[in-house]
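TODO from last week: model Helix-turn-helix transcriptional regulator.
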Amino acid sequence: MSRPAGRVLTLLELLQSGGTRTVAELADRLGVQGRTVRRYVDQLIDLDVPVESVRGRYGGYRLAPGYRLPPLMLSDDEALAVLLGLVAGRRAGLTTARLTAGETAAAKIRRVLPKDTARRLDALLEALAFTDRPGEFDTPDAGVLLTVADAVRHRRPVAVRYTDREARRSERTLHPYGIVAHAGRWYVTGKDARIGEDRTFRLDRIADARTLPGSFEPPAGPDPAQRLLAGFATADYRHAVTLRIHGTAAQIRARLPAGVAILQEHEDEHEPAAGRDRAAERWLRVELRAERLDWLPPLLASLDRPFVIERPGELRDLVVAHADRVAACARRAEPPAG
């Protein structure tokens, strides 16, 4: 922050302390001349800060009664980043339970920006269009989110009231490792002290969170985001699928990300492990869980890599049927002979 901008904020702090401040007093506190104080006051007025001029022997400047909101000394780029962040957060579901919070925050920011900057940003937001529609998200309670975040930072256990996807309510003691935002929802990963196992909980399903005495030491290993994705890939769905795909990890991850599948080295007796190049194409074992199988045949075709289906047999039948449909469509598109 530049020195003049810092002095303007210092002037505001002095005025917010109450009473009327003379020009001489303010000039002395800021280390500037009286005319510079008047220029700083004009800058605050331009920011819609209600600075009142008091005439007379003991005159000077004061704030209008009840005013406590400081201005935001933001450049155009900074203001644009903040407002676009609020818009993106609302569309991605990264907001608190009060869905209007982003809108009211943006309105407050616009009110304390210079009129010209606010007008230009309003024009951008009005002109901005998105190719996707904003989703409807189940957002967490702000108090729960902040309580759990504080427990993560200080490694404190929390007591939570949780409702699972079957609408069953329970009270649990959680050792929270971290908070993860994924696909428009908030999650907390940690150990469920009642069963002594790691679990992932949706924060919007926690009705209450209360910090408990004591502390815990988080385990070594994957970070909270990796734990969350691994949990999704091994969730208890109807079908357990095991594949072998020949390619690089990057090629496979382009279609089967960590939240969908687990990749493992496939032991090849003809190739010693010490000599493998991790960036080279090789056979990798892929494991995933799925409620339905019908989305896998076109996805495997889009990989354009050799693959073997180890299980289930039903998936092999679906892949063959998909290939037959594609071949039949290709034959119908051929022009007649002669």
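Done. DSSP finds eleven helices and eleven strands in the chain.
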